[in-house]
């Protein structure tokens, strides 16, 4: 059974710390991505130092917000598994190519 103090600490963690952590993680992910390139979660893990599970959650949220999108399927350069990589959205003329 949790006491009131523990419940308050948990509420504080989820209400303040987690959103702040997520915001920093979004910025880290977006800062390593370059337009015209796509990335598997494992490739992003190599670039950011973050875990694949964290990257998966943040990439899902970034896709839902329209900040990134899936690229054409390809093999990961590290694991050699076929993946749907993440990339920055293609804009303008690039979409025609």
What this model shows, in words?
With 97 residues, this protein is mainly α. It has helices at 4-32, 41-48, 52-64, and strands spanning 38-39, 69-70, 74-75, 82-83, 86-87. The chain has a single domain (4-89), classed as Winged helix-like DNA-binding domain superfamily/Winged helix DNA-binding domain (Arc Repressor Mutant, subunit A), CATH 1.10.10. Helices cover 52% and strands 10% of the residues. The strands form two sheets. The protein has a three-stranded antiparallel beta sheet with strand order 1-5-2. Strands 3-4 form a two-stranded antiparallel ribbon. β3 (74-75) and β4 form a beta hairpin. α1 (4-32) packs across α3 (52-64). The model has no long low-confidence stretch (mean pLDDT 85).
Tag the structure with descriptive keywords.
Arc Repressor Mutant, subunit A, 97 residues, globular, mainly alpha, three-stranded antiparallel β-sheet, 5 strands
Provide the fold topology.
Elements (H helix, E strand, L loop, with lengths): L3 H29 L5 E2 L1 H8 L3 H13 L4 E2 L3 E2 L6 E2 L2 E2 L10
Antiparallel strand pairs: 1-5, 2-5, 3-4
Helix pairs in contact: 1-3
How do the strands line up in the largest sheet? 1-5-2
CATH architecture: Orthogonal Bundle
Main β-sheet, in a few words?
3 strands, antiparallel
> What fraction strand?
5-15%
Annotation, overall tally of beta strands: 5
Radius of gyration: 17 Å
**End-to-end distance:** 60 Å
Oligomer: single chain
- Net shape: globular
* String of helices and strands: HEHHEEEE
**SS summary, helix count:** 3
Helix content: 40-55%
């Amino acid at each position: 059974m949790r006491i009131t103090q523990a419940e308050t600490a948990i509420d504080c963690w989820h209400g303040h710390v987690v959103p702040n952590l997520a915001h920093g993680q979004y910025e880290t992910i977006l800062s390593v991505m370059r337009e015209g390139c796509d990335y598997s979660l494992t490739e992003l893990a190599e670039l950011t130092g973050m875990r694949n599970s964290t990257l998966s959650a943040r990439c899902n949220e970034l896709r839902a917000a329209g900040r990134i999108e899936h690229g054409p399927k390809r093999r990961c350069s590290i694991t050699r598994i076929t993946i749907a990589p993440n990339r920055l959205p293609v804009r303008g003329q690039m979409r025609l190519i």
